[in-house]
Amino acid sequence: MARARNDEPEVLAEGTLISHLVELRSRILKAVLAVAVAFVCLAPFAQEIFTIVARPLTAVLPGTMIAIRPGSPFITPFKTTFFVALFLAMPAVLYQVWAFVAPGLYRREKRLALPLLAASIVLFYLGVAFAYYAVFPLMFAFFVSTTPESVTMMTDIGEYLGFVLTLFAAFGVSFEVPVATVLLIAVGLVDGQMLRRSRPYALVGAFVAGMLLTPQDVLSQVLMAVPMYLLFEGGLIMARVLLPQKMTASAAGSA
After folding, report:
1. Residue 135 DSSP code
2. Residue 132 — pLDDT band, cuts 50, 70, 90?
3. CA–CA distance, 249 with 255 (Å, rounded to integer)
4. E strands along the chain, which residues?
5. Contact of 219 with 207, CB cutoff 8 Å
6. Gap between the Cα atoms of 125 and 121, Å rounded
7. pLDDT, tens digit (0-9, with 9 covering 90-100), for 170-222
8. Among 52, 65, 57, 230, which Cα is nearest to 136's?
């Protein structure tokens, strides 16, 4: 009986446009509430949070950072705190996205989407952590060491925040390569054998992405390109685990 029920075609629940809009509003409100709660909890520590975010630069900066605009010493720490709150609340935000789209997915799609969602969260966090602990100290030390003797390096706190947020986003997104690889194979745009043959192009593409997404110095470009290529290889491994039939079929077809 159980086998018969599993063989039956799966029917998804349908709803009206109004019900979908009401559900979407509810999910958006819950996501915003999660970010707001995190921000309210962190707001009293805004100055300390900015100090932590700025530590990779202040640890190697000969002098101190400066504030060009009058309101920057007050506004910039709170802007930093907001983005940190968004970063911490991202699992709750993505859960609301998942809860909204999950009813429209079949069981086989849910079995693939849930691991990819969890992996995307973890990989994004790993990308940000890699940027903060590995890339920033080396990159800022390089910038300071190459500053001409006639120039005093004094960085504006607002400019610094924009700079590091861009790099956090770049490294967070670049670490999503395994998820993107699995999705490309899952939807049939490419097959595993094609990606395996494309390793040289993937390596070149990783360095091109590093050149476009990081400051124009060789060190930071290499620090992004090498992990991106290794993550590409990790995506092939993940595809073999999550999509064994597709990977086996592509290998058999190439043979």
Report:
1. I
2. very high
3. 10
4. none
5. no
6. 6
7. 888 888 888 888 877 777 777 777 778 888 888 888 888 877 776 666 777 78
8. 57
